[in-house]
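Q: Sequence in, structure out?
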Amino acid sequence: MVFEVFRELFGLRDLIDILAVAVLIYGIIYFLTISRGYPILRGFVAIGVMWFLAEVLQLRTLSWIFEKFWTLGLFSIVVLFQSEIRRSLAKIGEKTKVIKFASVEERTIERIVRACRFMSDRQIGALIVIERSQDIEDIIEGCVYIDATVTVELLITVFYPMTPLHDGAVVIRGERIAFASCVLPLSKTAELPKKYGTRHRAALGISEESDAVAVVVSEETGEISLAVEGRLERNLDPEILRDRLEKLMGLKDEAT
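A: Exactly. Output:
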């Protein structure tokens, strides 16, 4: 009898509805915990508890204030986390099977690594962005169109000090250098040590807002770093860099 009543009041559609809401809430909480918004999440939880107590105790003025704050709070989340929201939506919509541009081949990775080794030994600053499945043209600025085959000599020439194109990023698309002297979005993370400058922050920024991979050579120390998915892998030697790029470009199994 109880089961029959429960089935009438609670159907399959209600179950799907509850599960969908639960997944949505989990996704929002997970997004805030992995982004820079974890302290803000704790603040919203505290405010939610206070609002609940205000409703239970029937504190009308306080409840009214919290209702207005909730509307403002949703707007504030969009403003504060616009880059993270854009990155998340891009990942939802990105293609997982069909690659928009020609894939990067092993010989291109070898040329990138050799150029980075040369520039690291001579402390020549460089920032090389490699596209994967997403087109990044809409989030980069000030680019000079190149459309040239990737070669060690060309990469070194572009970043050699005092040349017109050295102050910016090179974008590699497939087997070709698509652009040079590009301005990238800068990461706003506070976790990056102060010793790392604009190049590293730009590398992190493009990896946060797209699935592109960025290789950085420090002008001060010659250290090679790799930015991918909002993380910076530091102090890589050329062999490790080659291995990481081959795995990230799908040329080698991640398990190997």
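The CA atoms of residues 4 and 10 lie 10 Å apart.
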